[in-house]
Protein: Glycosyltransferase
Organism: Musa troglodytarum
Amino acid sequence: MWTAVDRQDKRHEEPSTVEVSATSRYYIATKSLVKPRRRTMEQHFLVVTYAAQGHVNPALHLCRRLARVAGARVTFSTSISGHRRMFASSADQEVDDGVVCYVPFSDGYDGGFDRETGNRDEFRLRAKSVGTRTLAAIVRSLQQRGRPVTCIIHTLLLPWVADVAHDHGIPSVLYWIQPATVFAMYYHYFHGYDGLIASHGHDPQFEVTLPGLPPFKIRDLPSFLSITRPDDPYAAVTDMFRETFDVLDREEANSTARVLVNTFEELEGDALAAVAGQVKLIPIGPMLPSPLQLEGTKEAKGMASAGADLFKPDEKHYMEWLDSKPEKSVVYVSFGSLAVMKKRQAEEILRWLKENRKPYLWVVRKENRGELGDKLEEEGEGGMVVEWCSQVRVLSHPAVGCFVTHCGWNSTVESMVCGVPMVAVPQWSDQVTNAMLAELRGLGVRGELDGEGVLQGAELCRCLETVMGEGERGKEVRKRVAMWKERAREAVGEGGSSDRNLRAFVGEIASLK
Ligand code: UDP
């Protein structure tokens, strides 16, 4: 059953500049004579995403951009477990914020998947079989309700969504929410380089050269590619990536493969070129949260009321606390939405934070608190520990001078766009590659971890001194960060490279109808 919604349609408040070819216009006009349509040329994007914060955020930013750029109808769909966390009071039903409509699908784990104890291989198979059925039902229901979907876009770990699209004769597009460098690494791994990498998987310092990419070490590869044991609990994740690239190969054979990438040409021209002959990558990023991109507009208000967060915001007045601190003095520490911090790592950070005089704002999620016990409550005037914050607002605050980050791609991009230098402490997945890229581009420094993968207090101190201090390296980092901040904003601004790419993509999809 659908919730009755009072749709205040805001999608057409800004004029669309999408170009549509003469042929497609004729086709749409002819169709509308046969069966009248509510609007001419209505594009309807269905954006399907895995229920993790790092997937939901860039997917939602894309939804809003599509609504704005194309005047398109946009439906966002994540699993019921994610939808429940976004909209606690919705009782699994459709929600409409006036720009984006949220319709959840069941992946067979409506109560959520337990990442600690759950079997990932079982998850992969069950999510695929249940998800295929329930998403197909959503596509049919939207069609019956006069809102036919014209393009399905999906993020990572959902390769089966492409099959649902194909079964309904709808174009499907992969939205790669990690950097193009990571895409190129996966691409080459699944196209002939798996043997080389597997045979050196045990040697983190081994240097690999892949076509079109600068040489890098095994330790800089996305961690799912250096798995050496078939019984590794994360082998199922590598399989999901393999399936994604199998789908792309099939689509490529029909010349229909399209991949939207959350990056921009100026940042990753080399990696985009590294696979240009094989797959059509369309850089459209960085996908920014609305308050940054659309400050003061009606859409920004819509965003504020949309339930993007999967975590309950901390009620502490951390923004007011930031207001009381001098410019660029505060160290912001967060390891994202998934990483579970090792006890020793947390203790190292805590010890250093206590000994040092720099004010800090530290996000320690509820599930990480057990490791620290009551110690966190001893925080004093010098620091504040919160369970979850509005990260982009924090990074935009003038008091923040450095971000100690796990280098999830969203955090990396948000730090760049807010002009905050990073200390990179990558944990797994693409974070290690993102950290390498961030350091290569001069966005910060990477902390050296000890044998147990822990950033020790002394090393944290060294890194902070480097990026916040008055030494030459610090000055250079801050200069580069300011430069990339401008370039990133230009890329997504009106007429910038990513803005043009997104508009061209929308026009191309419109011409397929
Ligand atoms: N985030 C947030 N508040 C927090 C911590 C994180 O809003 O206290 C957001 C952050 O802005 C980013 C996302 O959560 O958009 C995390 O995504 P990322 O790719 O950085 O890391 P992941 O959580 O996927 O490891």
The pocket of uridine-5'-diphosphate is lined by residues 52-54, 57, 334, 336-339, 363, 388-392, 408-411, 414 (CB under 6 Å). Residues 1-8, 12-40, 296-306 have pLDDT under 50 and may be disordered.
